[in-house]
Amino acid sequence: MSEALHARIAARTARISVIGQGYVGLPLAVAFAKAGFTVTGLDNDPDRAAALGSGRSHVPDVPSEELQALLRAGRYRAASDSGALAGSDVIVICVPTPLRKSKDPDISYVVAAAEEAAARYQPGQLVVLESTTYPGSTEELLLPMFEARGARIGLDLFVAFSPERIDPGNPVFKVGDIPKVVGGVTPACTELAAALYRQIVPRVHPVSGPKVAELVKLYENVFRNVNIALANEFALMCRRLGVDTREVIDAAATKPFGFMAFYPGPGIGGHCIPVDPLYLSWKMRANGFESRFIALADDINRAMPRHVLDLVVETLNEGGLAVKGARALVLGVAYKRGVGDTRESPAHEIVADLRRMGAEVAYADPHVPTFGDLKAVEPTEEILREADCVVIVTDHPEFDYAAVARHARRVVDTRQSLPVPRDRRQAWTRL
Length: 431
Ligand SMILES: NC(=O)c1ccc[n+]([C@@H]2O[C@H](COP(=O)([O-])OP(=O)(O)OC[C@H]3O[C@@H](n4cnc5c(N)ncnc54)[C@H](O)[C@@H]3O)[C@@H](O)[C@H]2O)c1
What we know:
CATH architecture of the largest domain: 3-Layer(aba) Sandwich
Number of strands: 15
Number of helices: 15
Helix content: 25-40%
CATH class of the largest domain: Alpha Beta
Distance between the termini: 58 Å
Strand order of the largest sheet: 3-2-1-4-5-6-7-8
Bound molecules: nicotinamide-adenine-dinucleotide
Order of helices and strands: HEHEHHEEHEHEEHEHHHHHEHEEEHEHEE
Structural class: alpha/beta
Shape: elongated
Oligomer: single chain
């Protein structure tokens, strides 16, 4: 069975279904379709599936024209009914893995998607989980569902975990440029999953099992989270010492080895960095182990929006103004530059706190037309001049920072987008 599937993968005649057509699943489905496979993109949000089916992409990294060409060629189709999984040779699961309010993992999406796949199990299939999750998920959650339907793993069903490392909005590294780590339940599972990904990426790195692959992703994101926290705490220290953080980090980055630059910011956001490390610490707690680095980094990063608020208060205060009644213009509400994703963005807390304290808040973001009950404004010269304080939260490349420097009266710059202020008339506070 493994050989038959191998042959279909090599000939690119294997029918692939990707469950979840979000930031991860859609680019992946499109990459397989572009490689010549026939791909079904399944999403249980009927509006999303309908939009994709009519050639409208919601992911900036996937241009609608590209999707339309694949639809026309019959290589891609979108569906919202899980019946569309029938007849798949390969099923890849790319559904969300958020946190519950209690900050515990919410793996209900993975469970639901895996149930849908297992309900349509047919011998000879390969199932790959790509959603970031806690170590042990693939074996503890997925396997029993398929085994209950008679599947024998490694013989007539092949199961692997392969973490998604896509960086939405990154113009240099797209799905097809990033090496894939693959860990199958058995060697045959790893081999098949590796063969699959070799069709679309330049390099596949097989590991000894799914738990290793799950941990690879978590380690990568814990690494980022901890280093961002270090940069954030370092920024607080530099501020007390009257030193510009960016100048120090940029100088340190001239060391050609043993140093990697991370920069401070208003807090962490998105679906990954604030969330994934807590999947690991949750699992470790169940194993009687407290992961102190993760807890500390999480504390420091989650306190940053509050720190930004303090900077706004100080900056207005220096100008003899209170937050109450002040006009604040927030530049950027997406969690990072170049994307329209506001999930977990520190802008939520910053905007809410400013409004709670009585500020009149407006925001500009070329990627986010509405934010809660607010509508984006154009950061024109007049709007910049009118604001008592401009708060740069997301350093979108579309913003005209020279205009901000020229026209804004006061700026809290959490991304070091403006140069170091040269004199007291430049009331810019850099993080
Ligand atoms: N966004 C990123 O930058 C990124 C990067 C690497 C890894 N990841 C991981 O990839 C996974 C997916 O993240 P995302 O950003 O693509 O999420 P997303 O919210 O953008 O997309 C998930 C999609 O899955 C759909 N869905 C949910 N349950 C479903 C089901 N049972 N059947 C069919 N469709 C279903 C949703 O409607 C949604 O469209 C997560 O585990 C995330 O941690 C995300």
